[in-house]
Design brief:
The chain is an alpha/beta fold and about 290 residues long. The protein has a single domain, classed as Rossmann fold, CATH 3.40.50. A seven-stranded mixed β-sheet has the order 3-2-4-1-7-8-9, sandwiched between helices.
Amino acid sequence: MKKVAIFMLFGQSNAVGHAMPMEEKDIINEPLKNVFGLNCEPNQSFDIEELSFTGYTSFGMNLAETQDNTYSVANCLARAWQDEIDAGVNLPDLYIIHIAIGSQGVTGMWDPERAPIIVPGVLGKCDVSMYPLAIRTLTLLKNYLDKNHLEGDYVGIHWRGGEQETDYAPTKLQEFLKDTYLRIFGGMRQAIGVNAPIVMHYFPFDKVMSQRDKEDGGTRLESMHYINKVFYELADTMENASVFDVRNCPLYDEYAWDCNIFRWDLIHYQGRVNDWVSKEILKEYKEKRSI
């Protein structure tokens, strides 16, 4: 049985690589030989019976929002992984599953109670119930691996989201947030039949949340801190779960106006930061497997 690595990226805009178009030299037009993804055309559906993986490109591989050729972690990891193999590193083939829409958290299109809906398109026009789509896709992933005599080696279920929930006061979040994440992550693990690593990405949006609170008297900063607290609590209580902290990036400078990692809006990461994140994910994978 052939072993293959599997990377899953779920969440909202920072999982999409929102508004970070790739330079022409970085766009993956030619399908990669050792990295595979799920193109929307045959896979963005609740009705299919089998997944159809194809050589990875930097366009058409997010099963939710249409925003192609961005410096998303998925696209950056695909390139870094292929480059390592081309350089002679003994890595397995990589399979990527990517589902994300900007501005949509667990109180939006990631709501696990949402009825199954798929309306493809760009941000603001697409309408995709991402939790049931993720569960359907991951259930079919297990079938795909079994049918093709492949053994999945899980890089992780990476969650890059939470921003939408800062619209809720911390007292309201306490009523549902932790249980909702437990349901989402538990459902994903159950669908693949493996206790895959859960990696929740800390989000350090202190500056923009503070500014928004000053403008409208909200509690977004306090809510953001509570959401991050939930991530750490889940990492402590769930088996094989952790928090990825982007503040460990060598570029990070808390005193810079943009912390040296954000775009002008102070909430979306720069492309070079996502590239660093992807290489850290690859580095950790290699270290754990002594590659």
